[in-house]
Design brief:
seven-stranded antiparallel β-sheet, seven-stranded mixed β-sheet, alpha/beta, globular, 18 strands
Length: 309
Amino acid sequence: MDRKNLLIFENTLDFVAPKVAAVLSQLPNQIKANVQEIRLKTGKSVSLTIKGKTYFVTPFGSVKENSDGALKSDKKDLEDTFRLLCRNSVYSHISEIKEGYISLPFGCRAGLGGTYSKEGGITGVSSVNIRIAKEYIGCADCLSHLSGGVLFLGPAGSGKTTLLRDYIRLLADGKTGEYKRISVIDTRGEISAVSGGISYNNLGENTDILHGFPKDVGIENALRTLYPDYIAFDEMGYEEYLAVEKCIYSGVDIITSAHIGEKNEILKKAHLRKLIESKAVKNVILLSCPAGSKPEIFSADEVMENCGL
């Protein structure tokens, strides 16, 4: 059992409604250490994601595969959870709430569902999904032979961020042959788990962390002032590609991730096609659920030749 993952889960309960947290605290430690998500919905059963599969919480501190007799969260539980997530200050988190999430310690994040308001983001919160960040040192050892940029692809819950994080550590610790300079643009703190200027995740000896920076701003700052061999960030979209174009002409490789559901989607997304064509990434890693499944490794050339595999 991973003691750190257990500690992260238990600390995350500080942000869950007291009624629900009291039950979750009774779960066996082996379950706590493997929880990936805590899901609360108004009037619905409390559920957990464990190794990619949904389980429901009983009122007695155990889990089951069906919702019969499961613990339910009510409107007050959602209100209490939202208040705790905001640390009793909605205003101080308004920029995040407008994006549909709230950042938590140790790289965890709460996604919000409810009614959209242009002024205040999501109001009348009706669902909360707390994602528990995981760190598995050594999970990227199978990638130590690679050189050049890497694009991690897969569905939600496939472990893209976990593998990306450990690959950064390999490069920055010289495990691939020499120490590489890495700049990590960690907008939401999910890669580094920075809190109070300290990174609670191990990103290696030769890594600079730009925490809270918008990705385009962080990429530009890293290029201009930190002279990295690699720039790493999570969840690449089209806007990020526009910033990445600057890296292509600067000799800097990219480490990033993107969400896809199926292999044949790779080249259907314009920004992913452009990234692969640019050779800013030379390797594509395909992941599947549950997290921890063996990754498929392809060169950028193989992906282009097979037109999305």
